[in-house]
Design goal:
It is a single chain. The protein is 40% helix and 14% strand. By secondary structure, the protein is of the alpha/beta class. The chain has two domains: 77 residues, no CATH class; 288 residues, Spore Coat Polysaccharide Biosynthesis Protein SpsA, Chain A (Alpha-Beta Complex). The strands form two sheets. Strands 1, 2, 3, 4, 5, 6, 8, 9 and 10 form a nine-stranded mixed β-sheet that branches. The longest helix has 37 residues. The chain starts with a helix and ends with a helix. The structure holds 2-acetamido-2-deoxy-beta-D-glucopyranose (5 copies). The site of one 2-acetamido-2-deoxy-beta-D-glucopyranose has 4 residues, from helix 3.
Length: 468
């Protein structure tokens, strides 16, 4: 009797142990799978601590320290689809078409066929907006987003004013291809900002770099071009019609590029898309693009040296394909505060934003600009410009590089700013008035002999400072 019982126990152990193991393994795999699918953070995301100053002036989003992630859906395999969010649903149809696993052949089709892309975007738009659920949800979106959606298929706005067939002001007597074109977002009324920039950091023509040993006769520089990017102000709302003045301004400086769309915050993405198109046509040889706001101060001589250094690096030809540098923001969460200027409801966009460089000022290669131009044809417009650039970047499998000398949130503390050479250690700082820009320019010219060899700001210096 006892032997029989023993045998049964052995059989039970033999049968059950593998079963239990299998069940445990199944749970483990399921948990790991759902966790990995839940991490929407794209590869290469930089996540770092952020102080209270991190509320970006253009782009929304809090950093990942906030636990405000979208809730885990009950069926994890549906996680990435987000069909109830308008933009995600739209883009899904397009991305699906180019999925290298599902449609390996489609990667190549249409690469040089604009008509094809246009019809693809149009089809996905019609598909999504015809759904009853979408129709119901669209009415509930905030007015500003509804306005955006109603024009989001349109991107070929006519050019009203442009430099005379050249890539911006400064095209005279160049002995080599331009190193840098400064593309500055501005509005009709901001004449003062444009004038301050023209007379200071935005000077077009040959610009000498800073940071080489001049007593040894080492010097470098590059040709710089300049162009201002504008939409149209409505004369009725503004009370005056400035278009004639702008024509005169362009005759004088040759640096105005204006399109016929309303110059609003949610239309800023059009300035990227249309600038890329214009660049691809007129700026073929230009090595780098600076794109930024008209209320920043740029240390152009330092920038020139920095960019020359990038070109001298081994493999520069290869790295220039993806080169983008700025103040990189990772794992940003869309702004869900419904009375904010940056409000994006989750019925419009779900998930984190891709890693992107803050739109206050960013530099990228001419080659990348052309690739972004091509890629933008298959990415639906998004109301926030720097996030849109990030969305094109991940689809190119390119990742912006963070550089601490881009201060799109200003100096972290007054003490650092007040050091004699502080402005020689940076490439860009936001935000400065036209008056401050002129003063700062004089200041860096006056301190050049003392400060020409200070290195650019780096993360180490910031680490040493006590955190607030
Ligand atoms: C962009 O597309 C054009 C054709 O439309 C192609 O000739 C060009 O090589 C592409 N540029 C890049 C940088 O991929
Ligand atoms: C471009 O795409 C359109 C629409 O798909 C197609 O009708 C046309 O034949 C294509 N053109 C070329 C040159 O491939
Ligand atoms: C610059 O060159 C001079 C002369 O060769 C040398 O004495 C000096 O140390 C150099 N300075 C730096 C910062 O390299
Ligand atoms: C963008 O510009 C178009 C064309 O001027 C305008 O009709 C539309 O209202 C603008 N969109 C937003 C969101 O302001
Ligand atoms: C904004 O959100 C608050 C609370 O979250 C809500 O009470 C209010 O109705 C919302 N306003 C709009 C215009 O949706």
């Amino acid at each position: 009797m006892a032997r029989c019982y023993c045998r049964w126990r052995n059989v039970l152990i033999c049968v059950c142990t593998p079963c239990i193991c299998l069940v445990l393994l199944f749970f483990y795999v399921a948990v790991m799978l759902s966790m990995s699918m839940n991490s929407t953070t794209p590869a290469g995301t930089v996540v770092w601590e952020s102080g209270p100053q991190s509320a970006h002036f253009v782009a929304p989003g809090i950093f990942s320290s906030n636990n405000n992630f979208p809730p885990v859906p009950k069926t994890f395999w549906e996680l990435h689809l987000h069909r109830d969010a308008f933009w995600n649903h739209l883009q899904l149809a397009v991305d699906h078409h180019f999925n290298p696993i599902l449609h390996p052949d489609n990667m190549k089709t249409g690469s040089d066929n604009t008509t094809f892309y246009e019809s693809l975007l149009r089809q996905s738009f019609a598909l999504v907006t015809d759904l009853d659920t979408t129709k119901r949800n669209l009415d509930k979106l905030p007015e500003q987003i509804q306005e955006f959606v109603s024009h989001m298929e349109m991107r070929d706005y006519p050019t009203l004013i442009q430099p005379d067939g050249v890539c911006g002001a400064g095209a005279k007597d160049e002995k080599e291809p331009p190193l840098l074109v400064l593309a500055i977002k501005t509005t009709e009324l901001n004449f003062k900002n444009r004038q301050a920039i023209r007379q200071t950091w935005g000077h077009a023509g040959w610009v000498t770099g800073e940071g080489r040993n001049r007593s040894r006769g080492e010097q470098d520089g590059g040709y710089v071009r300049r162009v201002f990017l504008l939409g149209k102000e409505s004369p009725e709302e503004l009370g005056v019609d400035l278009s004639e003045l702008l024509e005169i301004e362009n005759k004088h400086y040759g640096d105005i590029l204006q399109w016929d769309f309303k110059d609003t915050f949610f239309n800023l993405t059009l300035k990227d898309v249309l600038f890329w198109k214009w660049f691809s046509r007129f700026c073929g040889q230009t090595r780098f693009v600076f794109k930024g706001d008209d209320d920043v101060f740029v240390n152009t001589p330092k920038m020139i040296t920095y960019l020359q250094d990038q070109l001298k690096k081994p493999n520069a030809d290869e790295t220039m394909k993806d080169f983008m540098v700025g103040d990189v923001i990772g794992a940003a969460i869309p702004n869900r505060v419904n009375d904010s200027k940056y409000f994006i409801p989750d019925s419009f966009y779900k998930g984190l934003y891709p890693t992107y460089a803050g739109g206050g000022g960013v530099v990228y290669s001419g080659l990348l600009t052309k690739r972004l131009h091509n890629m933008s044809k298959r990415v639906h417009l998004f109301p926030i410009d720097d996030v849109y650039v990030g969305m094109c970047m991940i689809r190119l499998d390119a990742h912006p590089v963070h550089h601490p000398a881009f201060l799109t949130f200003d100096f972290p503390d007054k003490e650092e700013e007040e050091e004699l050479c502080s402005y020689h250690r940076i490439l860009l700082v936001h935000k400065r008035s036209p008056y401050q820009i002129v003063k700062l320019w004089t200041h860096i010219k006056n301190t050049e002999t003392q400060c020409w060899d200070v290195p650019l700001r780096n993360e180490d210096k910031r680490e040493k400072k006590p955190k607030l």
